[in-house]
Amino acid sequence: MMSLQAPSSVVMIRPHAFQSNPETRSDNAFQTATNHSAEKVSEMARAEFDEAVSRLLECGVCVHDFDDHGDANTPDSVFPNNWFSTHTGGHIAVYPMFAENRRRERRWDVIDLLKRDYRVQDVIDYSGLEQDGLALEGTGAMVLDHIGRVAYVAKSNRADPVLLERFCTHFNFEPIAFDATDASGCAVYHTNVLMGIATDFAMVGLEMITSEERRHTVESRLRETDREVIALSTRQISEFAGNAIELTGNAGRVLALSERALKALHEDQLAVIERSASLLPLCIPTIETAGGSVRCMIAGVHLARRTFEAKAA
Q1: Where does the UniProt annotation place the signal sequence (predicted)?
Q2: H helices within the chain, ranges in order?
Q3: 173-188, pLDDT tens digit by residue?
Q4: Which of 294, 311, 300, 312 is nearest to 88 (CA)?
Q5: Which is nearest to 68 in space by CA: 16, 11, 12?
Q6: Domains with residue ranges and CATH for the chain
Q7: How many Å apart are CA 299 and CA 10, to the nearest integer?
Q8: How many CB atoms lie within 10 A of CB 179?
Q9: With contact defined as beta carbons under 8 Å apart, do 181 and 194 qualify?
Q10: Theoretical Cys-Cys bridge with 70: which of 16, 219, 267, 309, CB 3.0 to 4.6 Å?
């Protein structure tokens, strides 16, 4: 049975012109350089994507995969969780993006497929607020606790506080915002590299939250929902250990994360995870050079599927 927190269906975008985005490099400290040609990098990323989709399908996760348009001006298209999110009750949100070239990633054919296959009541489109210089980059900027109805947000230029309040009012979440920095003192650009929330546990880089009071608030609110809190170190966060997503497969819940992230976790942390979810490591080293990992690649579908009954003759 699908958990409220762990969707059984996802949307993913197959990259055809993948590269580390030059427009986001200034505030995404997780991006790294590569020595390969642009064509080779794109080819490698596409192969990693296809293998990841295959692994998810083998676990029984339904994957709606779309090809991007092969546009060199959308190098981050493989990370669709930033421009839309779905919610129980039939709601979809479409978000304003900070970097200009990321605004081209929005795909209304994706929304149309969701309307066709799932019960969608409304689509709230915040993207026009880009013209006012506002950004709220979906479930990258917000890590959503669908059980406790809390939106955890690391403050950044990708999470406008006014728009955050508006989203939380529309979608019935309580915002908990905090400052978070890496070992170099740089602000964490997206909350979902810092933390991931599953049904029975949460993985959080608590030591990166600069305020002791807010650190305590985040941890205590997660524990209120009977979750075990796995405290990740700054080094583990740098290996994308926090950028994981729990999904529901044929045999129960799985935690999808990268092989790099898995190697960074300790045995006691893995034991907590495996009490309620199977581990599903995916090999995506090329994609991770863009500063995102498995969670960023996956947009969960928290919608009720339509049942198509055969028409009477």
Answers
A1: none
A2: 38-58, 108-117, 138-141, 161-171, 212-224, 234-238, 259-264, 267-274, 285-288, 294-297
A3: 999 999 999 888 888 9
A4: 300
A5: 16
A6: 9-300 (3.75.10.10)
A7: 5
A8: 14
A9: no
A10: 16
Q: Cβ(74)–Cβ(68) under 8 Å?
A: yes
- Tell me how far apart the alpha carbons of residues 300 and 160 are, in angstroms, rounded to a whole number: 23
pLDDT digits (tens, 9 = 90+) for 2-31: 689 999 999 999 998 776 545 444 444 444
Strands 84-87 and 91-94, sheet pairing: antiparallel
Instruction: To the nearest 10°, report the CA torsion of 83, 6, 63, 99.
Output: 20
Burial grade of 59 (CB within 10 A; 0-12, 13-18, 19 or more): middle
Q: Three-state DSSP class for 3? A: coil
Q: What is the distance between the terminal CA atoms of the chain, rounded to a whole angstrom?
A: 34
pTM of the shown model: 0.92
- For 61, the token pair is 């996760």
Q: Is the dihedral of CA 270, 191, 59, 31 positive or negative?
A: negative
- Give tens-digit pLDDT for 197-216: 999 999 999 999 999 999 99
Tokens representing 44? 């490698």
pLDDT recorded at residue 1 = 59
Tell me how far apart the alpha carbons of residues 67 and 54 are, in angstroms, rounded to a whole number.
15
User: What residues have CB less than 8 Å from 305, skipping those under 6 apart?
Assistant: 9, 117, 118, 119
Please report, to the nearest 10 degrees, the dihedral formed by the alpha carbons of residues 120, 192, 196, 259 taken in order.
110
Assess whether pLDDT exceeds 70 at residue 35. Answer: no
DSSP letters for 44-74: HHHHHHHHHHHHHHHTT-EEEEEE----TT-
